[in-house]
Specification:
Blueprint lengths: L2 H17 L12 H13 L7 E5 L2 E5 L1 H7 L1 H8 L8 E4 L5 H11 L12 H10 L3 H18 L5 H14 L2 H11 L4 H5 L9 H22 L35 E2 L5 E2 L15 H4 L8
Parallel strand pairs: 1-3
Antiparallel strand pairs: 1-2, 4-5
Amino acid sequence: MSCSEESESDVEDIAMMQMSLPMETSYKQIDQNFINETIEKRRLSVFAEHDLVIKIANTKLHVNKDQLIAESPVFEKMLAKQSKEEEQQEIELDGKNLNDFVDFLRCTLPGTDEQVTDKTVHLVTPLADEYQTTKTLQKADNFLTNKSRQLGDRISSQQVISNILQAESYNLTSYLDESIAIASRKLFSRLVDNPKFKEISSVTRMKIAFKRWSDVDRVFESSGNLHGITESIDFYKPYQMPVLPSPLRPPGSYQARSTTGSSGFSFGGQSGNVPPPLPPPDLNLSLTQFIQRN
């Protein structure tokens, strides 16, 4: 980690501490000594005593036990079972990829505190979920959410289904919300014809439908195009003749007809050049966002 990167991270730490305080607490009340102490601990953590060995295959990774326990309740339980009398504890992890686990540790332990990247996010996230490292999962959630926002509708239907399944599996809430928004603009057939779509939870599938429904309603309401909207009738009210729905005209569509009598006076309308009402926005254009065919 470079000095500039460390300085930026320190600023982020201060901002996070300030945000965690009650609203009525002023910045002057913040214990600056506590902030400085916390940042200093993080800066020095890379030099902490390595009193734990994690063995993967034939490679030994030396880490600080307290730092690992502070980030992972899973490792805390695992190490609690071992003898505390040993000068240096050692645990062996079977079936783990060495490079993936190193990336996970570098994103998790405060001594390095790296961010996930396109290359590492899908490798680190399963390990962060397995060992319940909340901060690392939050890094993955933020990264994948921002990437989804950048790509938007360019993400294919097949890919957005995979993204939703990943977000559900690891409880990445922001990433899931962004993926739901993208899926809601895809053609119905492009989603349901994919066998993987059935693996999405019923709750999330309902959210996709509701998101599309509400957004389409918003487009109609903002356009002022109310053609085809019918009057409501009382379903249980008896009637002798069939009740036919009558279409309502949109507001402003009623225009008085001007008639001129024999005397030359105009009745029922304004005289002079009255500009015709502006046509409503083109709904076809407004609704194109909901027919993403990719």
